[in-house]
Write a structure and sequence with these properties.
two-stranded antiparallel ribbon; 14 strands; 9-stranded mixed β-sheet; alpha+beta; homotetramer
């Protein structure tokens, strides 16, 4: 797709002002009492699937900022948990601390509208200089979405369409391909629907154990490697699919294919500031893809409930698919 | 209620073995495909309410372990966000770090089955000495509940029943009173239902600005003050209500009334190890209580989606009520 | 002391430009090869005392931002440390994580020159708007003092001078009083010397167990209580002593007496931006005071070695007094 | 050196009981009032050098657990620092949070005696099962060394001895070589001295930009790669040098060469549990090596002041060399 069309979608077709000049809900305005009631019909069996990867606490070359998980134990005897035999056990409790640098390519999370901006500013043209503060953001914070996402959603299975196990580097998913996938699956997509784009990330990683997804190419360039990040995923042309179908939320396992050919700061992530899109990065979609294929139905109820952090730029989440 | 009856409920009526000796799901076993399909009927308007308090980042005497919220800004120009005028803006992104010591009385969170134990052990008789490790718990971790809670729920409004604004210290909510509230509200409670017990905590706090909820009485005793914690809330006799109705999950704004008269390590929290109960502490229930009273319906769909932390003792959550 | 004199010391007598317009070392410029060699003479016995309080990890009403201390254990057997009997022990290691929100009134720490500013700016007139960034400060960072403090120091024992156990609220230490203490102790103070002002803080705290030092007055006002902080300590007039004697560093157990009567944003802490003073807050001085009194010598070698955090606003430290 | 001799040094020549069965100070017992007074003579010029690397906050493939550095800004005007022009500036302060997972190969730090153990236990035969708790260690905590290290130290410059820029993988430094280096430098080493072994680490890293020091070989094995770590450094035979000279503390830039040929859990690090040695990992020694060569003196005063964390397994430090 020509760069000018990408730019057309990122600027002329923006949702700025669509829901008011001070709107902070973006595409979640598309979710209404009516769409929620309608979404109930997408539940057929009552089975629930979690679309969350485990919080990535492991340390190693594919997890640049490991999540922290530490425990404390309180013991009514006052001593160390392990200092008395089990047959003299007393009551106790275990608590933990989670340290979550959740943005990036490892944690399943929801981006808030304050997460990214380009030269024109944040969503709705707001100023990052004024709204990004040391105490949190004052526009587009995740608390604006405290009632979460409760929507009909459709899974789009790209590897099944391609007849492969996963999307490879150099062969990014395009907007036109998403249209084909939807048509092929017989999945109608209504305004306000969420979509889950499955690209086979976990299989890709298993097949490429030495290539961290979203990797820094070398130690040397690691401190300023944004343009060098390499990962398979979706092309900027997917913006057309998102905008034309008035998608409320996108959950994906692979993210923007990088590097990309266009001279734009963000590709699909640009939908955040352009459309006010709710983006759920690093979702775990393989089990859902299998379930959808088995059932022959690709729609379901999606529920996402972000932590209510005042002025937060997003939240780790555990999206639930009720099928 | 006599202490022996409390003990009867904490030991003789335990759910240990009920779902298998190695079961780690506890009362969430009561949630099935069928109960989830049935729960959809509790949605009437499609309105969603968040039952989460804001993540407590504020510093002061009522928040012993403040949550951490820190930001980073990346800027495609390489410089400080504020070092160039807005009309020369370049693209950028804001990310944040959440540090969450979420147990306690401030954060809305779900306790995992590994959170507490008494002399007999954890839920299902498992050993804390073996299962609580520096890398997380090996039994009853929150990942066992990765598919979350998707259940019909009933709100029980104690202040409305009492004709007061909030539950006071010295007047704890009892199991018998919960029965009265349910009867008075005309709310049938079915096995597997979740309940939300509203005690008016936010109003209590507003009326007692100098008394932190769940407070250490003095600086002197703060390091070993467990038995001294003071807070209004629910009496151990509520265990009977929970067990007799086969409740799957309890969300509450006020927690165990402390100190309590019984010589037991945990009162209502004992339902975690005794029954395998899913407990959602520090929920925000005032808006829901008002909505239920206005509508004349006290049941709704409750969705809780904990973060998938392998071996975690719980998770901060944003429970959603779809009414 | 009249407010105009305080203002005179905070503005007219500033050290701005004294060591160059871009100087970032402030009063540590007073430390030279020669002063370090001379400081060796202050070591008489070879005994070392630590002037650091324990890192404040405890949770309670007197420690608004507890330091975090969490452990991990790695075990060559791969299992839990406690899962095999001691007689089958294998090798292992224990590591920990320290989370340090060290500024404030609990942790012994060194303030960097970027820590505070007034309407005229930071030390040397630099701009906080430009120099305080999300990645750290770009002027006056603690790394400017990576070679630390190695200086002759003099203890000033205020309670001994007053014949009391500790300085009380409402009776702050003044600059004139410091002159008296020095004279009374027979301690000459040379340009470039450090001083340790002992006010008996630990005894004060022991005598006032329910009053946290530097406390928020109520829960209500805790979010915006700066002007309400209450603590005994030093008066703004101590600025005259610091400036007139050309002190290189001040270590103190009690900090600024607050609230103060002058309409200035910072009292003794104003010496940071006015003079470029190295300030070591919350030092533990009781043992040193006793040792000095016993020996009849109040001077010694002081060594302070801050962590080298690029762009940090200070560092927790363990100051050593070699007497 | 034959493995049996290594084992001889790790077991038969242990310092267990040497300073009492409950001693927790290990080789720092060798530091006395007398050695500290004597160490003053090693100061010739009064120049100070920091031996600390910057706290490693950068994110990338060579820093598995980045240190955290986050700022907060408080503003007497109550608003965002950047929301008003500089000519209307008000007073403010910047504070920061340091999150320090300091063990490993990136941060300059001091290991406490509780850090490692083998099948025979911790230093002095103490039990890790009993002494490693969720609240910190109860034996060999870093607070046992709160008075720090204040000692005569000798730099040993291995690359200068070899006539190379740095120690390579496959050519580890041996104990015999350290003897040669000392002899060649004409540096007498007295019981109780500290040594700083310079291996040219920073130059090695600059020459091998794609090989993180102490690296995991692949993504695949990163979760269990202890035996696979690869780094140039010191051979286990250096234990003989340490023990025979009764070294009080070892600061080094390169650590144990790994993997090693002996079937032992720790090589030079074994000196911690065997001798009670104070080990300062990841010191920055290049500037000191140059200064020593220029001056023709290899001895100096070393001061190390660990943070006083009760029950901590070590501390990040900024070692100072006063030459």
């Amino acid at each position: 797709m020509p760069e000018e069309q990408i730019r057309h979608y990122l600027t002329d077709k923006r949702n700025w002002g669509r829901w008011g000049d001070d709107d902070q809900r973006g595409t979640l305005n598309l979710l209404t009492h009516a769409t929620r009631l309608a979404a109930l019909s997408a539940v057929r069996s009552g089975e629930v699937l979690s679309l969350s990867r485990p919080i990535p606490t492991w340390v190693g070359s594919g997890n640049a900022l490991p999540a922290q998980h530490y425990l404390k134990v309180a013991h009514s005897g006052g001593e160390n948990l392990h200092s008395r035999p089990a047959d003299e056990r007393v009551a106790g409790s275990a608590t933990d601390y989670y340290g979550l640098p959740y943005h990036g390519v490892a944690t399943t999370h929801l981006d808030a509208l304050s997460h990214v901006w380009d030269a024109d500013g944040m969503y709705n043209g707001k100023s990052p200089e004024e709204n990004i503060t040391f105490d949190g953001v004052t526009f587009g914070g995740i608390e604006q979405w405290s009632t979460g996402i409760f929507a009909r959603a459709v899974l789009l299975d790209v590897p099944a369409h391609r007849g492969v196990d996963y999307v490879e580097e150099g062969e990014p998913v395009t907007g036109a391909e998403l249209e084909e996938v939807a048509r092929e699956q017989g999945a109608s997509i209504e305004p306000g629907d969420a979509i889950c784009v499955y690209s086979g990330r976990e299989r890709w990683q298993a097949a490429h154990p030495d290539l961290p997804y979203g990797r820094y190419p070398t130690l040397t360039n690691s401190s300023n490697g944004r343009q060098h990040f390499r990962k398979p995923g979706l092309d900027a042309s997917c913006l057309t699919f998102i905008r034309d179908h008035d998608i409320s939320a996108l959950a994906w396992d692979m993210l923007d294919a990088t590097p990309y050919d266009y001279d734009i700061p963000y590709a699909v992530h640009g939908a955040i500031h352009a459309y006010g899109l709710a983006l759920i990065d690093n979702a775990l979609l393989e089990e859902l893809a299998t379930a959808c294929a088995d059932r022959g139905h690709y729609d379901f109820l999606l529920v996402v409930a972000p932590l209510v952090v005042l002025g937060g730029t997003g939240s780790p989440v555990n999206p639930l698919a009720i099928i």
